[in-house]
Amino acid sequence: MAIYIALLRGINVVGANQLAMKDLAALCGDCGFRKTRTWIQSGNAIFESNLKEDAIQRRLEKALAAKMNKPIAVMVRTPAEMRAALEGNPFPGKEGSKVAVLFLAGAPPAEKLDGLTGPGGEQVRTGRREIYIYYPEGQGRSKFKLPVKEPGTIRNINTVTKLTELSGGS
Q1: 83 within a domain of the structure (yes/no)
Q2: Is the pLDDT confidence value at 137 over 60?
């Protein structure tokens, strides 16, 4: 059994796409994942599975689509990959709530994004399967739109740090 972290796209605290974390944990159990724990109401689950990443992603996306009546993208990482994403943060001196990590299924289009800046001073750097964005005024105030079409999901560095710790990746 290996430990994995699933990051769901578009699961919200209020409004559309609400999914209680107890329901997410139950859904993960129904998918055959063991020892599921969730963290904060934004679609983060940590569990054990014998499956590989792509099989976990497919199984969880299928179960979520049935439950939510719409597709929900899922990005899957191991604790080591989550730690590597944290260690790869190109904005280490910046406030954790103002640095976001967009987790992707594959490699980002670095030639179009690395070094990109936004109208509010936002800065973009690419990683292995991540895009890092620094929002000087905070993500909620930003008008910056990242020109990426690939499905992904964003977590701030504080959340990445906590998920790394909870998964044993610290």
Answers
A1: no
A2: yes
